[in-house]
């Protein structure tokens, strides 16, 4: 019966090509494929193929060879080759979970030969066990059949080799005999591996944490035993009873890249017990209870029923802007600029119109005044004019002492690049007051419109956090934008940044460079800042350090150079949620006069958040160069947890109230090490929103 099943399976899998007949044949196949591992099959010259059918035939043939090579690599226990193929091919391209003619999958061979490294590599790539092994008995019978049929084939070939005279056919039979002897030994090793295996031990550790008011996060680790067969999946169970009767739910995890699971749809305020079991080819092992033994879904907001701070704010701002627009409906440019066409025709006509407007072309050199430049970059290339100049337009030939306030206003305008024409018209109407501030801001809007028109681009990107000034009286405001598609533009072109820096002829001395020269010298730093300012934190709970310093016209905040849109920080843990119980403990700690809560050592050791905070505070103080003894008067901000979406949250560590903000001229003995900068507070707020 088993032999008939094997024949049926071979017919069902007829589309699978036979593997190499011997280990040497497998190695030859590796060499033949080695040059193809670095390219995709679509890199063939498709123009030389006749018809779609031939392309598809070539694709299937190529993938079949890759699949056969993977089987042979697993059988030969060639970990490097397995990892190489998993890196260059997707599971679908490798047919990773389609059984071969023997009813086996690559993962079956790896676990039954007890090759843990290859098995783990396959599991992380999404490999599964063969669906034919529905029970221990069926697996044992299947292996016995493979061994018996391989032994029978070896005996048949050996008799033919002994009885036949030496000739070409005999030489071929000898090759087949060697191949089947090798396969016979492989099947016997697999059978022995299965017979000597035992069920896995319990997971070495199971950690339970509160993920939200309706979910729990379960994180677990592999069993410690090394003699058991490879674990291929885990089972998470949960119940309201410590005896797990009745069982409320279970989940089987067979994607083992990350050993964690989130239990969703739970009832807030209810205690849940959790346990995890491991599985291998011999079955399920004993369960491991979680630590702590149970957890209660909750969120810190439940402590006092507080609503999220930002709930409805975006909608309220949109509504407010709509009201402002309604009031200014008499602005004749409001509707046209709202539906401004983005076609090539518009961009060309706009650019041509500006070419004949006095002073509307891009500038080559700077005279004393205030200017706007737009930096568009893609990889190592930058957009320049046809004269190899960075696009620059003039805002004004003079500037007021309130430049910083106007500059910060411009950074907010950068959130509304599409509304510049409308804003310009509204500011024009308001100029009847002859306000110097309004006149300067109108000139800024005019320069922005001019830049947009000359480039044919509305979105000028993000404003760099500080203007560039030189001793000749020039101030240069810089915007930065990364272009991720292959766009072409009428009035500008792409050139390598290195070429622009090399070919530029400076008209200033090295001691007193102009603002444009300073821009070119520091352009790589500015592009790096722009890229880093758009990076996001990985999910988790963080401890942030709030440190401000004030100047005459602004307040600045300390941030790390590597992530300038976030406060100085260290990660506390991967779970961003603060539970109600944890928040109650923090409130209790904040209400005490002593900096450290006066609770028994045993209680503290059982509080995971206390231990996590201790580690995080030490790490953060080292990061910002503050001796730990000086941090004894620091305090945690206990009014709220700062939530940035659903995946990132912050607790704030504050210096004493007198030291939160350093005044001008005030000495700060503990300056952070290199790798930090201070941003204007308004720029930092915009960076957080982005």
From TrEMBL:
- Gene Ontology, cellular component aspect: spindle
Segments spanning the bilayer are none
Q: Which SUPFAM superfamilies match?
A: Ankyrin repeat (SSF48403), Fibronectin type III (SSF49265)
Q: Which Pfam families match?
A: fn3 (PF00041)
Ranges for region Disordered: 1-25
GO BP annotations of the record are: establishment of mitotic spindle orientation; regulation of establishment of bipolar cell polarity
Where in the numbering of this chain does the Fibronectin type-III domain appear? Answer: 202-299
Q: Which residues form a coiled coil?
A: none
The protein in question is named ANKF1 protein
- What organism, scientifically named, is this protein from? Chloropsis hardwickii
């Amino acid at each position: 019966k088993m032999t008939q099943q094997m024949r049926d399976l071979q017919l069902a899998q007829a589309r699978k090509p036979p593997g190499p007949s011997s280990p040497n044949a497998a190695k030859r196949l590796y060499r033949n494929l080695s040059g193809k591992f670095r390219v995709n099959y679509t890199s063939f010259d498709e123009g030389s193929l006749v018809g779609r059918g031939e392309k598809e035939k070539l694709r299937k043939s190529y993938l079949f060879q890759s699949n056969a090579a993977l089987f042979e690599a697993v059988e030969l226990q060639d970990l490097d080759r397995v990892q190489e193929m998993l890196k260059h091919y997707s599971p679908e391209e490798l047919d990773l979970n389609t059984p071969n003619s023997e009813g086996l999958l690559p993962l079956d061979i790896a676990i039954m030969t007890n090759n843990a490294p290859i098995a783990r590599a396959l599991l992380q790539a999404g490999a599964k066990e063969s669906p034919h092994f529905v029970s221990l008995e069926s697996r044992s019978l299947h292996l016995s059949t493979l061994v018996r049929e391989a032994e029978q084939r070896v005996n048949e070939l050996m008799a033919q080799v002994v009885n036949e005279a030496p000739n070409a056919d005999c030489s071929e039979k000898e090759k087949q005999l060697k191949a089947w002897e090798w396969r016979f030994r492989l099947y016997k090793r697999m059978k022995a591996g299965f017979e000597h295996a035992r069920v896995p031990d319990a997971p070495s550790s199971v950690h339970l944490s509160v993920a939200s008011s309706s979910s729990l996060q379960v994180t677990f680790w592999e069993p410690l035993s090394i003699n058991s067969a490879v674990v291929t999946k885990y089972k998470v169970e949960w119940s309201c009873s410590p005896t797990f009767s009745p069982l409320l739910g279970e989940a089987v995890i067979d994607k083992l890249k990350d050993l964690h699971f989130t239990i969703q749809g739970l009832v807030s305020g209810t205690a849940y017990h959790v346990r995890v079991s491991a599985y291998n080819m011999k079955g399920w092992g004993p369960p491991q209870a979680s630590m702590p033994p149970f957890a209660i879904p909750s969120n810190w907001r439940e402590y006092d029923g507080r609503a999220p701070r930002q709930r409805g704010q975006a909608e309220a701002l949109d509504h407010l802007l709509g009201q402002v627009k309604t009031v200014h409906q008499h602005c004749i440019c409001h509707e046209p600029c709202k539906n401004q066409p983005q076609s090539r025709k518009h961009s060309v006509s706009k650019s041509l119109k500006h070419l004949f407007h006095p002073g509307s072309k891009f500038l080559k050199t700077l005279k004393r005044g205030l200017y706007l430049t737009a930096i568009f970059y893609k990889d190592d290339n930058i957009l320049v004019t046809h004269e190899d100049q960075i696009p620059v337009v003039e805002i004004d030939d003079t500037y007021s002492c309130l430049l910083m306030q106007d500059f910060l206003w411009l950074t907010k305008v950068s959130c509304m690049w599409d509304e510049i024409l409308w804003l310009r018209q509204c500011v024009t109407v308001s100029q009847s007051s002859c306000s110097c501030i309004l006149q300067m801001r109108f000139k800024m809007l005019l320069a922005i419109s001019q830049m947009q028109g000359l480039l044919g681009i509305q979105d000028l990107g993000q404003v760099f956090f500080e203007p560039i000034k030189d001793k000749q009286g020039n101030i240069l405001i810089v915007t930065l934008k990364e272009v991720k598609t292959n766009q072409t533009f009428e009035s500008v072109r792409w050139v390598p940044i290195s070429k622009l820096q090399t070919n530029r002829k400076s008209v200033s001395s090295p001691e007193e460079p102009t603002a444009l020269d300073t821009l070119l010298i520091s352009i790589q730093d500015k592009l790096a800042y722009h890229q880093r300012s758009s990076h996001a934190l990985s999910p988790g709970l963080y401890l942030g350090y709030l440190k401000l310093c004030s100047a005459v016209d602004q307040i600045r905040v300390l941030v790390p150079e590597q992530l300038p849109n976030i406060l100085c920080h260290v990660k506390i843990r991967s779970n961003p949620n603060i539970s109600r119980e944890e928040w109650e403990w923090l409130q209790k700690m904040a209400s005490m006069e002593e900096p450290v809560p006066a609770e028994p050592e045993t209680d503290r050791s059982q509080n995971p958040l206390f231990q996590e905070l201790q580690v995080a505070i030490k790490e953060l103080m080292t990061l910002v160069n503050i001796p730990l003894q000086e941090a004894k008067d620091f305090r945690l901000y206990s009014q709220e947890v700062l939530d940035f979406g659903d995946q990132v949250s912050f607790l704030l560590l504050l210096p004493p109230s007198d030291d939160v903000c350093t005044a001008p001229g005030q000495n700060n003995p503990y300056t952070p090490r290199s790798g930090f900068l201070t941003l204007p507070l308004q720029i930092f707020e915009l960076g957080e929103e982005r």
